Amino acid sequence: MGKRRAGRELLRSLSKKQKKHLREFGEEHPFFDKVFACRLLGCSCCCCLHLCFPLQSEDSDKSSAESDSETEVEQVSGYHKLLATLKTSPESESEEEEDESESEEAEESEAEMDSERSQEAGEAEGGEEDENDVPEEEEATDTAEQMLSQEQADGTDTSCDPRHGVIEEFTDVKHESEFSLETNFMEEESGDCNADRRDNNPFKQHMDKELEEKEIEKMSTLPRTSSQNQWPRLGQVIFSSTLEKQKTLKADKEVDVKQLHLHKPLESTWPKVNKQFLSAVDKPTDSCFTPLQRELFCIMNSYRDLFYPERNALTNGEEIRHAYCLHALNHVLKANAQVLSNNAKRRDRKPGTDTDDHRDQGLTRPKVLMIVPFRECALRIVHIFISLLEVNDKKRIDVSNKKRFKGEFGSDPEEKPPNLKRPEDYEAVFAGNIDDHFRIGVAILQKSMRLYAPFYSSDIIIASPLGIRTVIGAEGEKRDFDFLSSIEILIIDQADIYLMQNWEHVLHLMKHINLLPLDSHGVDFSRVRMLNLNNWSKYYRQTLLFSALQDPQINSVFNKHCFNYTGQVAVRNVPLTGSISHVMVQLPHVFRRLEADSVTSVIDARFQFFIDKVLPEYRDAIMSHTLIYVPSYFDYVRLRNYFKKEDLNFTHICEYTKKAAVCRARRFFLKGEKQFLLFTERFHFYKRYTIKGIRNLIFYELPTYSHFYSEICNMLKARDSGVDATWTCTVLYSKYDAQKLAAVVGIDRTAQMLQSKKNVHLFVTGEN
After folding, report:
1. Sheet containing 568-571, strands listed edge to edge, beginning at the edge strand earlier in sequence
2. Would you place residue 246 in the very low, low, confident or very high pLDDT band (cuts 50, 70, 90)?
3. Relative orientation angle of helices 602-609 and 633-645, to the nearest 10 degrees
4. pLDDT beyond 70 at 255
5. Which among 40-44, 244-248, 763-767 has the top mean pLDDT?
6. What domains are there in the chain, each with its CATH number?
7. How many Cβ atoms are within 10 Å of 27's Cβ, its own excluded?
């Protein structure tokens, strides 16, 4: 009985994928990544710095050893021992059962949660079926051995299958010599070696310019001078630079592919790849770029830094992705073609001749770093690269480890989409594989591409902020950031999402990019550019920053960590109306201004203003059903502790709240058993649940995303006659919230509200 009970407890603790693996192979699923293990053990190492809502896929970065399939009798592993120590007591099991029953009651009270309950029930039934239908261990082991032998006979790389355990993070070392820049030469038939020698080539103009120490000193000490211009599609564009005599960039009305100085294969492939976005363009003369792409690529191709804060996943997200992929690939192909061409010159030179004209490399090989939030984004980027490199169906490029890449970065076809109806922008952002802990190196050499290349043999690195942070490490740990020393193009896409994850990872990256490496890594110093040897790489690095909004933290990265000598370009359009015009319910809005001496003191000033001026007005039982929207998690913890100390009747929901507790809190709030509901912005970002029963709404701070304001306000719905008149909405703001305030109420009202120190009352009729 003891063994049977222990076996049932073990199966109960396994996830659905682990049970499936046990049923198919007769052994436990390999232990997942270090981050997951550290969470179980309560570790606080660098891997545990992932402070965002846990949306990670279970398939990310597996690091455990694969079980020996030839062993007939499975031994008790350390994984089982670890699970045995994590067993809950009977009391905690009963509490979990109570939570589950309460969550089921809460789901029954709301129609939109019915689908989740049925899905949970289906998973529970599936779990019982898995438990009862576990085959004999020897038969499963034989089946696994047959599959492995069959795959090996077919020449398949079994390590790329997520079902098989991986000892450590996979890197492709088999094709190292084939993709080495030092040992390869330019193919004569390509003709690309002569194509990039033109004097007006933007790549050569930017990389071959030799700065003087006086200019470096100016960029380090003097402030930037700025000017603005109005472009047809981008709108108000701000140009800034420290160096004098910078040419003003003008938008091209029409673009000829041949005038862009693209690498030879891209001239023919780009119009085909970008054709999907040109159907809605009215002008047939501009046959290769949309109006937005044309102006963005004009800035990118000039090698200026760019900040574009109007990226929208629904409308222009893919257009922008294609544009910066074209620019990044064009840069890599030109840089590699220059190296291969110089290899041939060095090979053919006469013995004894010494020349210093072939400085064409950095201290390390990686040239482009692309930061994206999810694996799905990396998947789409690689697909764009492949499409741009394939001239036609007959001339397909050779892509190494493509099957493995699709398995790890693609979405699970068996995964059922959620039945809850969510906004379109949510579906666009969270499409596909949303694991946010990944990194992959890409090496490109003429007509071949290698995925999973080691970082020091890669041309392009695609990673998430968390994935790159775990490689860089922290003080006192094993650290490696030399591969960032010679990054020439840094692309940070969807920067607003990192505010919802952990912005510290982005800041940590910016502090470690373009530093002198601690090791030579086998570089030939006679080929290294002088700008790299002088530690001036950051003054040549181009940074492309794309976001869905303007935020002080994002602006700070662009202003303080971008030193490009060619200057910076930022799009600064001001909203005219604001998201308050999308509020569809009749609701009075009261904007209450608080005073603060500085940005650092506004946090304490807001808390004191709330507990002294705002909260006393809502303590009365009449002001029940009050939702307090809190954008910052730290403010949420501070308010929660204060509410507990004051013994207020409240409940709370944050991004770390378990599902049963969320359902229980929603039910208590709906029925009026709890007067207050503390609600974090990150929970709303990741879940988008509709909170019912709201009568009074308090925005402790203006939301990061302006459309969240209208979404939360539209959750108020009358359940009986006469309730509409009691609805209230209170918003706290200070003079330091100008950008967020303008996104909500518009630029005209913002100017009036910042000039006046009185509270502002607005009434939205639902027709504005």
Report:
1. 225-231, 235-241, 568-571, 305-308, 542-546, 489-492, 368-371, 460-463, 439-445, 448-451, 398-400
2. low
3. 40
4. no
5. 244-248
6. 202-281+292-346+359-414+422-571 (3.40.50.300), 577-764 (3.40.50.300)
7. 20
